[in-house]
Amino acid sequence: MTRRLQKLSLILLGLVVSTTSCKQQEEAAPVADNILLKEWTGPYGGVPAFDQVTLEAVKPGMLEAIDLALADYEAIANNPEEPTFENTLEAMERAGEELNRASSYYGILSSNMSSPEFRKIQAELAPVFSEYQSKITQNEKLFGRIKAVYEASQENPLPAEQQRVAELTYLQFAMNGAELDAEKKERYAAINKELSSLYTKFANNVLHDEENYVTFLTEDQLGGLPEDFVKAAARTAADKGQEGKYAITNTRSSMDPFLTFSTERALREQVWRNYYSRGDNGDEYDNNKIIAEILKLRKERVGLLGYDNYAQWRLQDRMAKTPENALGLMEAVWPAAIARVAEEVEDMQAIADAEGADITIAPWDYRFYAEKVRKAKYDLNSDEVKQYLQLDKLTEAMHYVAGRLFNYDFTPVPEGSVPVFHEDVKVWDVTDKTSGEHIGLWYLDPYARQGKRSGAWATMYRSHSTFDGKETVLASNNSNFVKPAPGEALLVSWDDATTFFHEFGHALHFFSSNVKYPSLNSGVRDYTEFQSQLLERWLSTDEVINTYLVHQETGEPMPATLVEKIKNAATFNQGFATTEYLASALMDMKLHLADPENIDVKAFEKETLAAMNMPEELPMRHRTPHFSHVFSGEGYATAYYGYMWADVLTSDASEAFAEAPGGFYDEALAEKLVKYLFAPRNAIDPAEAYRMFRGRDAKIDALMRDRGFPVPAE
Predict the structure, then answer these.
(1) 88 close to 146: Cβ distance less than 8 angstroms
(2) What confidence score (pLDDT) does residue 5 get?
């Protein structure tokens, strides 16, 4: 599929998007003056004018950009010359430049700077985007040209990258209904339009519950909470007009540390219920009926193409290929995961009993008592570890790793020289250390705010290509850390530091791209997490620990004794971590394999978990009513298993580095890492790329060893 469709898909959190001819130009300024459409100017090959975007410009700008893109595709479809790679697929690579630029702004407003006013525009545009995609993928003349080039390439193969573009483009159009008859095409397009509205409503319902379920504490309710967390909670409460109180927001970055440290069990339960009930409160923002409708429409749509279920259709171009293969991996790990949970709960219950707590471990107790077990078993205190995990120093550490592995330098750009969409956003110039060549810009948006979706993610505003001259990369990392009080260091947990490295891995994947055609920058979902998960491993290398994990007050490096405790506890709580993730991944797959007719989503979730012997002491990482990966779009639908699929590759590749003469900074292996695993993006089949790096396929054994689980017998 073309990069314009891919771009919109990413922006709408993976939903299968697209549009209409959209001549509804309303009370808008002249299109020529619309900032969304203007070419990017300024330094670094041109940069987005994030500081100039207004809500008034969004709808007319997006509508006009869509019209311009459609005109580009129509011109390709109606070219009187015989179809060739150059006049069809290369022309498609160039189509829709205005829409590509406009989509970058739209994505920021959707993910980083949403507001009630923007959400109204978003709801209006969602079906328009859907019609746009249908107009392209169902354009018979356009697909006829694509098919002609593809079929000719089967007889006389094109150069490697061109062949890959031809095959991927043909497959994506075929998967999206290009070969259906007229009646089925009409229904296919109608389903996509309906789904696009449901995805937007689902996402906005989750965001509503995140913004409106805030727990305000008084000073006598702060027992056990770390000082830095208390200061940040006070600041957040003041920002929300509750001076003198302390705010626990309904996001993971606030919920997680509160459940870990608060001694107030009733409040832990309240915060837990707020978080895990998002989208499931029986009100106008409840998502259960929306999910049921999404499931029915997805099954009907793939049925038009001849598939039995959505998972079968979706996985054909992934590494797993079939839902059976994906389930096979997850079900191989599941028994060991829940067995470990039973051991962890037993350890926690023993401590609670010894303290005379007179409780049975409940989900809102798991993190709290796990922390006590950690201290008892490993003499490891999470708050002590946090004192060495300063966000600024972690940023420097990531840049150091990028320098060692990728030969990159990160230099802060002068404030004001590059436009940003919020004052918290910082920008770095990325260059090659040897040649000084400009690689791109890295934007960092670290803090939670009203209107910003929860979680952490990476975004690419401009992808690399050498198609029409070299284009440099514009990429960002986005987190939701609670902003510290003025003058205070932002301290994060080890898990948060790992996630920070993870998302930076995505950015490095963007920066290291070495492909000719922009569409080859797309990722294969169960492979694209591999590179980012692999980068997590460098957080615990000696070079990073000894130089960048320094105490916030003394500046002293993390002591060797504490490092040893962290490494000894590496498999601690893996029952919890693996089970909460796998439960969500299995639920995703099982929902899409089930008959959605008359499905009761809430009952299905409960019954499925019971059949899986899901431990009662913890929930899925993402309960179905707020599973945005899967139901606010289609990017991770039947693909959430991909994190584990990628982790098999990660564990296996990590062992290669551990065995290398130079360890995790071995120059020869780092060169192979960049050459085969990062730079090709989707220009090489992922399985083949991994074999080029490792010399063989990955094995599950390393994953099981990493998690401290029994390795399956041969």
Answers:
(1) yes
(2) 52
Which of the four CATH numbers 2.120.10.30, 1.10.1370.40, 1.10.8.60, 3.40.630.30 does domain 3-179 have?
A: 1.10.1370.40
pLDDT of residue 468: 83
Asked whether the beta carbons of 461 and 476 are under 8 A apart, the reply is yes
What DSSP string runs through 541-592?
SHHHHHHH-B-TTT-PBPPHHHHHHHHHTTTTTHHHHHHHHHHHHHHHHHHH
- Residues 343 and 577 sit within 8 Å (Cβ to Cβ): no
Q: In the prediction, which pLDDT does 585 show? A: 98
Tokens of 353: 């009993």
Q: What is the pLDDT of residue 428?
A: 98
Q: What integer pLDDT is reported at residue 13 of this predicted model?
A: 36
Written out in words, the top-level CATH class of the domain with range 391-547 is alpha beta
Pull the structure tokens for residue 321.
Answer: 């290929």
What is residue 156's predicted lDDT score, i.e. its pLDDT?
97
Spell out the residues 6+ positions from residue 518 whose beta carbon is closer than 8 angstroms to its own. Answer: 3, 93, 463, 465, 467, 471
The amino acid occupying position 291 is: I
Gap between the Cα atoms of 633 and 155, Å rounded: 37
CB 660 within 8 A of CB 622: no
Map out the domains of the chain as residue ranges.
3-179, 213-276, 391-547
For the chain, report the end-to-end CA distance as a whole number of angstroms: 40
Residues of the chain with pLDDT under 50: 1-4, 6-29
Give the DSSP H or E segment for 459. strand 457-462
State the Cα angle at 642 between 638 and 644, rounded to 5°: 125
Please check whether the two domains, 3-179 and 391-547, share a CATH topology.
no
In angstroms, the CA 81 to CA 77 distance is 10
SS3 440: strand
Cβ neighbours around 541 below 10 Å, total: 17
473-481 vs 438-447, strand pairing mode = parallel
Q: Give the Cα separation of 383 and 156 in Å (integer).
A: 62
Secondary structure element (H or E) that encloses residue 669, with its range: helix 667-672
pLDDT tens, residue by residue, 525-556: 889 899 999 999 999 999 999 999 999 999 99
Closest CA to 244 of 220, 269, 280: 220
> Which strand ranges, in their side-by-side order, compose the sheet holding 438-447?
408-412, 426-432, 438-447, 473-481, 457-462
Helices 116-137 and 182-212 meet at what angle, rounded to 10? 160
Structure tokens belonging to residue 251? 């996001």
